[in-house]
Structures are given as C-alpha cells and as structure tokens.
C-alpha cells in the first residue's frame, strides 16, 4: 500500500483491441453491432464500461476499495486508439486504519479530447 497524497496524479495508458471488445461483449452481454461490426477503418466502438476499466485498473494498483464511482462518457472510444487516463487525489483524510479519499479522473484520446471523466470515492487500508 502506498499512502495517497492530496493533489497526487497517477497516469495509465491503454489501447483497446478488437479482441478486448469481443471478450468484454461475451462477458457482459453488451454485443450490440457497434461493438462487433468494424467501421470503414476496421475499428469497433469500445463499450463504455470497458473504457471505465481504465480508472478501475488504476484503483487496483493502489489497492482501493471504492464506495462510489460516477462516470461521465463524453465521446466514443474506438479500438486502436490510445487512451490516457489521469487520476488525481482531490481529498485525502487519514484515519487510524485507512485513508478515505476522493479522486477526479480524466481520460483523453490521442487528440487530447476528453472521452471519460469520473469521480471516485473510497478507502485505502493501511498495512496491518
């Protein structure tokens, strides 16, 4: 466990593949044609909740136990498009056994356009 620090920003980048979208479609049941039929460039639209796995992966790296996750989807994400996700601790309150926090998340595509924003509340347990 790494102590969260108010104002600290963490970054994660990922490019989803057609195979990622197909696997998520099979797992989630979200297999609409927009997620299974390639466009003229051979890309498919990434499911919104698959895009939302970017901040959840970052939370996992920090051993977060989320209590609230509010996502706003601003525009579609497509396969073979690099997405950069930045999470900043907005508030951090230290307790005896944990840190309580809120963080703001912004995910952008290669053109610098915002594709997803999120507000996350949760805790990080201190080491026993």
TrEMBL record:
Q: Which InterPro entries match?
A: HotDog_dom_sf
The source's domain of life comes to Archaea
Q: What is this protein called?
A: Dehydratase
> Species name for this entry?
Natrinema ejinorense
